[in-house]
Amino acid sequence: MTKRLMKGNEAVVRAAIMAGCRGFYGYPITPASEITESAAELMPAAGGVFLQAESEVAAINMLYGASSAGIRCMTSSSGPGISLMQEGISYMAGAELPCVIADITRGGPGLGNLGSEQSDYHQVVKGGGNGSYKTIVLAPHSAQEMADLTALAFELADKYRNPVFLLADGFIGQMMEPVEFPQIAVAPKVPDWAVAGTKESRGNLITSLHMDINELEQHLIKLQAKYAQAEREDVMSESYFADDAEIVLVGYGIMGRILKAVTVEAREMGLPVGLLRPITLFPFPKLEIARLTKKAKAFIVVEMSNGQMVEDVRLAVNGARPVEFVNRMGGNVPTHEQVMEVVNRLARELNVTRIQTTEEARLAHV
Amino acid sequence: MSSVSFPEYEVAFGRPDSYYEKYERKNELSHATHYCPGCGHGTAHKMLAEAIDGLAIKDRTVLISPVGCSVFAYYYFDVGNVQAAHGRAPAVATAMKRSHPGSIVISYQGDGDLAAIGMAEIIHAANRGESITVIFINNGIYSMTGGQVAPTTLIGMKSMTTPHGRSVENEGYPLHICELLATLEAPVYIERVGLGDNKQIAQATKAVRKAIDNQVKGLGFSIVEILSPCPTIWKMNAVDSQHWVRDVMEKTFPLGVFCDKTKEAQPHAPHPAAPALTELPKILGIEDEPELEHATKPRKIDIDLHVRVAGFGGQGVLLLGEILAQAGLDAGLHVSWLPSYGPEMRSGTSNCHVRVSSESIDSPLVTLPDVLVAMNEPSLRKFDDSVRPGGWVLYNGDEFPADCYRPDVKVLALPFTKVAHEIGDARAANMVMLGALLEIAEDLPQDAIDQALRQLVKTPKWVELDTRALLRGRELFREKCAVEV
Q1: Section B61-72 average pLDDT
Q2: Which of A254, B89, B146, B222 is deepest in the core (most CB within 10 A)?
Q3: For residue B336, which residues of chain A lie inside 8 Å, CB to CB?
Q4: pLDDT digit string (tens) for B279-290?
Q5: CATH of span A238-365
């Protein structure tokens, strides 16, 4: 396959169209605007609908309409816009409508700044709207994953009839890397439950309203069963030297990349360090983390926020091991050196096993 | 039981076909609506159902019912039904209609919904000329929530949130939606009707049918505002409330046609056919190309280059980095290019991180560059300290600032902008510097650079100039580095 150098944001719309998406309703915001701009150019060319809405509130409700109509559809935004969309996301989860939302996170709260942060974790993973619902959240760490996880997002959205997020920091959206695409496009298909202005679909109803308390409870039990199914079937994470690690680094998105370099350096020094990079933030890889507690002496969670994912790691570790937190905020990035310092300190304090350095391992094999 | 015989009779005004026979979605009293006796919704519903019947569009119709008393419209209408969030029906309807242009999409909204919380959505849907029909029930009050003030509440009218009557000072004037929308160019039909007496109802029936017929003909945006009685909240009996519509409400909200372009409006052009699925990779610019030569004969390049490029916006900082990354990719290497993403983007300077490596790239952030390309002094001062010991600084300036000197870093300082000016255009300074950089990253093949240049530089004139600039940069590095290294 031919690899092309492109921004993660530019890869998203191409992957979406190949995945059968034919509706994009958006509102501009830095650093997500390239997604909207690509959609403006490509969606009509592919026979789909592109519309810049009057607000994020309108954009998400347009997704509500397009999804009700049975069209694979998406939008993109960043923190402040995602906050405005939360009403519609709650309605879509309640009405069981699939859609894909790309959040290219910037600095917050409020207007914050244009720097990269990971501070939308809470509002995206925990759900910022009302009610007992969840969204599925995928966290790419490269331009290639921006494409691949966009395609997966549409499959999961339809599988669970639920909104799916692509949660990426500004770096992942803005960075150019080689990307390759599948060449076989998914054919758009209107599902049976949709309201499509046809005789066959006339009896269908899309609603999040259940006036009877028992009926609503039954509906909510059904929704929770879907989330439980996602936790059984669709958890994804990348493990990098984590199995024998006594210090496990945990980070997603761009942090996963930086922590990989830290892992390599630590291993070069003979420190048993590994990385767990959650790819799905909901469902969260909690079983994988719980499994790693058997060997690990400590976890280090690194985020570009005030500590949001670290809460889920602590729940998964459940007090079995210490969980250290390293962060920067405001658009700053925790550095390799900053993390390495904590690794070295923990290695001393916890008296971790010295393992073969990378060089010793190489010589041993010669 | 004795048999009773009924006389033969014909039902003149029976249940419209577009109504369900029994309201099964409504749990209790599935033969009766949830509306209060004397409520205008029942009348409006019936004229809507009869219009759907009359135009034979039941299968194509999608009814959008947002929050308000009519949120349960899906109990009654045997059409496709979508219940929507408060005020958002026009946005939902917009995408529904655009998704299925053959469907007939009706947004049925109350005054709180349309004229308060949903103001943005209705104005923009109307302004875009969405080919939808809006039925706007104006009873001057929030009925479902128990009677709070609406934007359309009459002056002096008491409500739960205007206990002493609506005042101009506190709540402003009643909002005239038809008059407001009539200022827009796109709508084809705007009319206000009432349910105040039989004559008004007859006119309302015609208006509703026309508003839907416009959509069937594909003409564009139509809205009918219906002044409608709410006896329960108004605390009147059914007859009095109906007359109040005619005798009182109508004085604030005059009936009539505010816009009618149905005669001159042209049906919307049909959508062009969607391209074949097999065409999509080409349309999206992602189609596989025949394998390039390098891929079949992989070159043995051992490289792990970390570069930081920085300068003023307009100096081609990002392009320099992009060409380097693209050339690396063309040479079959792993690459990443990350633009600076801080406030400096807004204050006139820019920088990027580039990595080119024979191994897969972990962090795309270049914190310890092997080469710093500093196209101006502020950039040098900002990043000089970060250069890896043994690394290089390429500096665009007559003289390297003495206080930036580091014994463990090699420097090539030249007035690259002046050099570029001499060979044709000062703006090619970035390419002269890239030429020098390529002498350091000597493993990157020239043909990959040439190919990247042709891909990313659009005009032949600039490709030619940039090629000469690159060459000059290489020459200058060779001339100077004999002394510098």
Answers
A1: 95
A2: B89
A3: 175-177
A4: 999 999 999 988
A5: 3.40.50.920
Output b/e per residue, B301-323; b: 16+ Cβ within 10 A: bebebbbbbbbeeebbbbbbbbb
Give how far Cα A130 sits from Cα of A164, A166, B76, Å: 17, 20, 28
The Cα A120–Cα B449 span in angstroms is 40
* Containing structural domain, residue B217: 40-260
Residue B293, pLDDT score: 54
Strand ranges in B85-238 using DSSP code E only, listed in sequence order? 104-110, 133-138, 189-194, 222-227
The answer for A 258-287 residues in CB contact with B (under 8 A) is 258, 260-261, 264
A283 neighbors A231 (Cβ within 8 angstroms)? yes
Q: Does A8 score more than 90 pLDDT?
A: yes
State whether A114 and B103 contact (CB < 8 Å).
Answer: no
Region(s) of chain A under CATH 3.40.50.920: 238-365
Q: Tell me how close the Cα of B78 comes to any Cα of chain A, in angstroms.
A: 7
Q: Give the class (CATH, top level) of A4-233.
A: alpha beta
* Residue of A59, A114, A336 lying closest to B367 (CB–CB): A336
Residues in A touching B58 (Cβ below 8 Å): 202
- CATH number for the domain including B45? 3.40.50.970
Q: Are residues B393 and B442 in the same domain?
A: yes
Please check the confidence at residue A77 and state whether its pLDDT lies above 80.
yes
Q: Is the pLDDT of residue B298 over 80?
A: no
Each residue of B437-475: pLDDT tens digit?
Answer: 999 998 899 999 999 999 999 899 999 999 999 999 999
Whether B250 and B106 share a structural domain: yes
- Residue B268 inside a domain? The answer is no
Instruction: Provide the chain A residues 133-192 that lie in CB contact (below 8 A) with chain B.
Output: 170-171, 174-178, 181, 183-185, 187
Residue B75's identity, in one-letter code, is Y
Residues 6+ apart with CB under 8 A from B459: none
Last residue of a domain, one of B260, B278, B308: B260
| Residue pLDDT, tens place only, B231-272 | 999 999 999 999 999 999 999 999 999 999 999 999 988 888
User: Residue range A78-93: average pLDDT?
Assistant: 98
| CA torsion through residues A214, A201, A159, A31, sign | negative
Q: Is A50 on the interface with B (CB under 8 A)?
A: no
A356 close to B (CB below 8 A): no
Tally Cβ neighbours within 10 Å of residue B29.
9
B135 and B246 assigned to the same domain: yes
Pair B187, B317 in one domain: no
**CA nearest to A51 within chain B:** B95
Give the tens place of pLDDT for each residue, B405-429. Answer: 999 999 999 999 999 999 999 999 9
Question: Is the pLDDT reported for residue B348 higher than 80?
Answer: no
Sheet holding B256-260, edge to edge: A205-206, B80-83, B61-65, B104-110, B133-138, B222-227, B189-194, B256-260
Q: What is the pLDDT of residue B295?
A: 47
Please indicate, yes or no, if residue B5 is contained in any of the structural domains.
Answer: no
pLDDT of residue B12: 66
Instruction: List, for residues A98-150, the tens digit of each pLDDT value.
Output: 999 999 999 999 999 988 999 999 999 998 899 999 999 999 999 999 999 99
CA distance A204 to chain B (A): 6
CB contact under 8 A, B341 and A114: yes
Counting the structural domains of chain B, the total is 2
For residue B27, how many other CB atoms are within 10 A of its CB? 11
Amino acid, res. A140? P
Strands (E), A247-312: 247-250, 273-278, 280-282, 298-303
- CATH number at B480 reads 3.40.920.10
pLDDT band at B294 (very low <50, low <70, confident <90, very high): low
Half-sphere exposure of A295 (CA within 13 A, CB side): 16
Q: What pLDDT was estimated at residue B341?
A: 55
